[in-house]
Write a structure and sequence with these properties.
By secondary structure, the chain is α+β, with helices and mostly antiparallel strands. It has a domain of 159 residues: Chalcone isomerase, CATH 3.50.70. The protein is 30% helix and 22% strand. Strand 6 and strand 7 form a beta hairpin.
Length: 232
């Protein structure tokens, strides 16, 4: 055995290769399926004029259909499908009913100060300046379950609506709603402190009062060009 001692490192390396090689090939993703092709073949998908793949329609309660029924047509789609760890590892698409330039400006600030690789940013003494949203602003987030790294079935809809001053001053006067899109029922609705909503939604948004409680961390290319926001 002493004669083999100089070869121990080589033998150990060979042993590791023999053990890990089968595991490596077993764990490699299959190349037989193409996620993009499978996504585009989904019969629920509708292609918009700008090439965006819309999934099937989300349902709303009858009393809310007049306000939200045509949001895809009449509102501003701010993002494409974005994976969100904060939204239960699902994908989201965000819409706003008005003033997309405010969200775009806030994204620009977020991108400049928190996403930029430019070394000069470290030398900037100014703090990011975010704008507040006016009363009546409504953000709507479509949620999608994720399958093979692609959006699949519809999940819920989350809504943030800017209410009149005094509605919930300690939380930017935002009202939150959570809708089951398959049944069209309102699961929860209210302001800070509301049972369920506080844990599910509001606690995270309360961490960014400087951004008027809205995460502006993604923006589709249309608005980057329209409002001169440099793409990252």
């Amino acid at each position: 055995m002493s004669k083999l001692k100089p070869f121990y490192p080589v033998l150990i390396a060979l042993l590791i290769v023999l053990i890990w090689s089968p595991l490596f090939f077993m764990s490699r993703p299959s190349t037989k399926s193409n996620n993009i092709l499978e996504f585009n073949k989904n019969p629920q998908i509708k292609i918009s004029s700008d090439g965006f793949n819309f999934m099937g329609d989300f349902k709303f309660p009858e009393k809310l259909k007049k306000r939200f029924g045509n949001y895809r047509k009449n509102w501003h789609r701010l993002t494409d499908y974005e994976f969100s760890g904060l939204h239960w590892q699902q994908m989201v698409v965000i819409y706003v009913n008005k003033n997309p330039e405010i969200y775009s400006a806030n994204y620009k600030q977020f991108s400049k100060f928190y996403l930029s690789d430019d070394e000069d940013v470290d030398e900037i003494e100014d703090e990011p300046t975010f704008e507040n949203y006016p009363e009546g602003t409504i953000f709507l987030k479509e949620h999608y379950f994720v399958k093979k790294n692609m959006p699949s079935d519809q999940g819920t809809i989350a809504i943030m609506e800017k209410m009149p001053v005094g509605y919930d001053s300690k939380n930017g006067n935002w009202r939150y709603s959570w809708i089951n899109s398959s049944s069209g029922t309102v699961l929860m609705k209210g302001k800070s402190g509301a049972i369920g909503l506080q844990k599910a939604c509001i606690e995270c948004h309360q961490n960014i009062p400087d951004r008027d409680y809205v995460f502006s961390t993604a923006l589709r290319s249309k608005y980057k060009k329209l409002f001169n926001v440099q793409a990252k």
